[in-house]
Amino acid sequence: MRRLCRTGATLLFGAGIGASASRLLSSRGGEEEEEDRPALLSRVPVIPVPRVQASELTVTPGGTGAVMKYGFPSLANIKTRESYVTSYDPRTRTASWVIERLNPASLTGPSDRKRCDFKEDDSVHMFHRATSADYRGSGFDRGHLAAAANHKWSQKAMEDTFYLSNVAPQNPHLNQNAWNNLEKLCRSLTKRYLNVYVCTGPLYLPRQEDDGKLYVRYQVLGRNHVAVPTHFFKVLILEQADGRGVELRSYVLPNEPIDEKVPLERFLVPIETIERASGLLFVPNIMKRTGSLQAITDR
């Protein structure tokens, strides 16, 4: 294991991110792994980031300018919707990331999911967009990145989450169980924090094969070759209601069934793990906004 130090504290950093999903699920947070079983999912604590002005914290839903308060993880193919912002990857036919802001006001309202249907994103060139036909008979769910239930405040906002550019192929068991529980956790955190910023995206992680080399392999669906992620990530930026600062949490889940007995805390990872694996950057944006970053080792 390698250790990454910041501001006098220590975070566990996985020696590699190419483990198979079964190895990831069997890893135990904080324990050294065998050399052939690199630990991606080391258990790490919440990271508090101080010095956010209370006057900057808002509770009204909508407004994509507020959604991007902590900057863009990348700058390619940015698209703005009613209540989320996304960066689209035309090669994979899915988003690289989606950012949304949750608070009690965004989670309540008159919207009706039954009035929503998945739809092609006609802002994407026809060569590079996914269609529902790509998913049909594939055995994968159309998994939301920005969850529909996060945007009940507006029918338009909820309908915008059904663009296929906000969707990625997801194992049905994962989508309906562990991933759904993680989405519920994000919503429940709005009871403790003023705003919950959620960045979600796919990962395509390498794994070691029989020849001892690392390869990135993933399935594609349909005539448009929609990429099936090997994993998904969520990065949470939690604004404290008293204005003292924000906290940072980050999760990585494999795109396969997860035993319901495995707690979500098992999938907490250092933010650097996601930054290295995805090519995105979160910490520099937060530091620019808040002025400092302090890591701790215990909650």
If you consult CATH, what is the topology? Extracellular Endonuclease, Chain A
Main sheet record: 7 strands, antiparallel
Name of the CATH homologous superfamily: Extracellular Endonuclease, subunit A
Beta-strand portion reads 25-35%
- Return residue spans where pLDDT drops below 50 for at least 5 consecutive residues: 1-45, 49-60, 292-299
Distance between the termini: 22 Å
- Shape-level CATH architecture: 3-Layer(aba) Sandwich
Q: What structural class do helix, strand and pairing data support?
A: alpha+beta
Q: Could you give the count of β-strands? A: 15
How confident is the prediction overall: mean pLDDT?
A: 81
Instruction: Work out the oligomeric state of the chains in this entry.
Output: single chain
SS element count, helices: 8
* Spatial extent as radius of gyration: 19 Å
Question: Mind sketching the topology for me?
Answer:
Blueprint: E1 2-6, E2 9-13, H1 21-26, E3 47-50, H2 64-67, E4 78-80, E5 84-89, E6 94-102, H3 132-135, E7 141-144, H4 155-160, E8 167-170, H5 172-176, H6 178-188, E9 193-203, E10 207-208, E11 214-215, E12 220-221, E13 226-227, E14 231-240, E15 245-254, H7 271-278, H8 283-290
